[in-house]
Structure to design on (593 residues):
């Protein structure tokens, strides 16, 4: 039994697994920056000092990239993105200009540059994109350490095997962790879409982020239980805690081992219904391991990262190379590429001045693309050229009217004629579909069906827009509910329209990977699901354990329920009877956030 007060903490689970071990506190607190006025004659010296600190940071990142273990090689792009930030004009040039104009020291000038960038990012509602400010801050802290003569590598000096506890860890910190000594980590800051979280999953290190004040409540050497599936941390656990989590860990590993062995078996229900299970992905480097997890294609290939990590707008050739590689790796399975789903508020340069009070309801996705045809054409042309190398399909986001589809189809047909003239290979029968994610598109699904090849349901936004809630607003986030009767009825209506007009229907939102939602979706007629790759083997096992015929008896009753809780409770009871491992699979799903 451990000594000290037992404390329970809750954070954001970003990498699965259960570990029990000693805490090792790492001081990653932000550097206190001094403000100094300097003489005009010292300005060139101060600028040179800043440039040297940046150059040193480049060398440090380059050396770290060279030392990456094999299993992290495919994630080297994360360190590349940090090196790109070092050269970004909003950081580099702006800092030099501040030193010149304000005659202040490099540290304070850099701090001011970062605060301006941070202010811009604070206006972005998308959690994945807004979290990229953490990458900028990591780079800034690295430069500051170089400017002030602080060491960069104290994180590597870990003696015995332990659990790292820190205010924050940069991707570079995480990439340099010794997996032989580090069991996992927990941090006050960060979230599931951070690059640090991505690396933790690649290293298979259990991790929880966003704990807020863990470093104030945990002492060096405390015994910790870290449940990377649910986000719970127990400080100074008692004997019962340890016994429970040891048993849970053993059960979890048995299930994981079993389902991974069967990952490539088809997902066929007990009564013979074949379900295609695909992956959602956003990084080219994630694609190589998808087939091992049992993915039968990519149902949602997000394309925003190429734009966000670029100093300007990526070229047609840069886009084509990425899409071509994805098509080749996944062939003959489909790669459904979603066209750009961000607004001008996310871009640097010519679009960076766009300022909307509510970007989620503003100029984004298809609306932005149709206003900026040159960007849209470039991406569509790259996708069409990549279609010559595999089963590539185009998916248009945030469609709310037939006019938007007609306009997009006209552009696609114009590009096809252009490719024919230039004698460039492409698949003339490339399928074009849309994501139904706003109520208006659901209501006119019958009209839209005449102009597209397939439907995909984006439940994340559909829930947000239907229930009029901001998922990122903690005051109303609890209202975000996939079991809301309106959502279930909308999905049923879309599937019905798909069958009526012989339009394939898939689902690519989080509901597709929720073990309680999946049986209901299949019973309603859904035959294609696309989800976070890590959950695929578990969902396929779940599908192989259910009978649509048996569940169909319950559909009428489920649709008659008045509340979300009634539906959820009914599904939980039903699934526990059919599939006792539902709780263990549920842990994996909820780990994904």
């Amino acid at each position: 039994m451990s000594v000290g007060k037992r404390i329970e903490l809750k954070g954001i689970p970003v990498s699965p697994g259960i570990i029990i071990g000693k805490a090792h506190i790492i001081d990653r607190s932000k550097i206190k920056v001094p403000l100094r006025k300097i003489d005009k004659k010292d300005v060139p010296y101060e600028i040179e000092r800043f440039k040297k600190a940046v150059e040193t940071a480049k060398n440090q990142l380059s050396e770290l990239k060279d030392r990456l273990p094999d299993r992290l090689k495919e994630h080297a792009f994360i360190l590349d993105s940090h090196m790109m930030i070092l050269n970004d004009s909003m950081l580099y040039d702006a800092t030099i200009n501040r030193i010149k104009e304000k005659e202040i020291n490099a540290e304070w000038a850099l701090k001011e540059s970062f605060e301006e960038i941070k202010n811009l990012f604070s206006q972005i509602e998308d959690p994945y994109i807004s979290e990229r400010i953490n990458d900028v801050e990591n780079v800034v802290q690295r430069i500051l350490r170089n400017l002030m003569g602080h060491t960069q590598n104290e994180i590597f000096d870990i003696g015995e095997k332990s659990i790292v506890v820190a205010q924050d860890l940069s991707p570079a910190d995480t990439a340099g962790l010794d997996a032989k000594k580090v069991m996992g980590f927990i941090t006050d800051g960060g979230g599931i879409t951070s690059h640090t979280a991505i690396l933790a999953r690649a290293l298979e290190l259990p991790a929880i982020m966003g704990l807020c004040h863990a470093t104030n409540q945990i002492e060096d050497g405390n015994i910790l239980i870290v449940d990377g599936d649910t986000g719970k941390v127990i400080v100074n656990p008692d004997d019962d805690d340890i016994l429970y989590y040891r048993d849970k860990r053993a059960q979890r590993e048995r299930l994981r081992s079993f389902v991974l062995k069967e990952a490539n078996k088809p997902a066929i229900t007990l009564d013979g219904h074949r379900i295609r299970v695909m992956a959602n992905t956003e990084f080219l480097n994630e694609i190589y391991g998808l087939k091992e997890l049992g993915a039968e294609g990519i149902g949602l290939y997000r394309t925003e990262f190429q734009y966000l990590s670029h100093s300007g707008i990526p070229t047609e050739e840069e886009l084509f190379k990425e899409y071509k590689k994805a098509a080749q790796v996944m062939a003959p399975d489909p790669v459904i590429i979603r066209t750009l789903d961000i607004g001008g508020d996310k871009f640097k340069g010519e679009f960076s001045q766009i300022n909307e009070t509510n970007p989620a309801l503003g100029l984004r996705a298809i609306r932005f693309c149709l206003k900026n045809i040159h960007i849209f054409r470039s991406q569509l042309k790259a996708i069409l050229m990549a279609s010559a190398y595999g089963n590539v399909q185009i998916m248009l986001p945030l469609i709310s009217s037939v006019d938007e589809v007609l306009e997009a189809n006209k552009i696609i047909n114009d590009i096809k004629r252009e490719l024919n003239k230039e004698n460039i290979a492409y698949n003339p029968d490339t399928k074009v579909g849309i994501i139904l994610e706003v109520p208006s598109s659901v209501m006119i699904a019958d009209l839209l069906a005449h102009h597209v090849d397939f439907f995909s349901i984006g439940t994340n936004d559909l829930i947000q827009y239907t229930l009029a809630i901001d998922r990122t607003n903690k005051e109303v986030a609890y209202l975000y509910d996939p079991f809301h009767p309106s959502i279930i009825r909308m999905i049923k209506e879309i599937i019905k329209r798909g069958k009526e007009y012989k339009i394939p229907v898939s689902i690519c939102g989080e509901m597709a990977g929720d073990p309680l939602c999946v049986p209901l979706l299949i019973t309603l007629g859904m035959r294609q699901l696309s989800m976070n790759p890590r959950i695929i083997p578990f969902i396929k096992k779940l599908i192989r354990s259910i009978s649509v015929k048996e569940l169909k008896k319950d559909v009428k009753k489920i649709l008659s329920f008045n509340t979300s809780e009634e539906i959820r409770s009914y599904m939980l009871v039903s699934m526990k009877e059919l599939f006792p491992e539902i709780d263990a699979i549920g842990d994996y799903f909820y780990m994904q956030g």
Notes: Confidence is low (pLDDT under 50) at residues 348-353, 588-593. The radius of gyration is 25 Å.
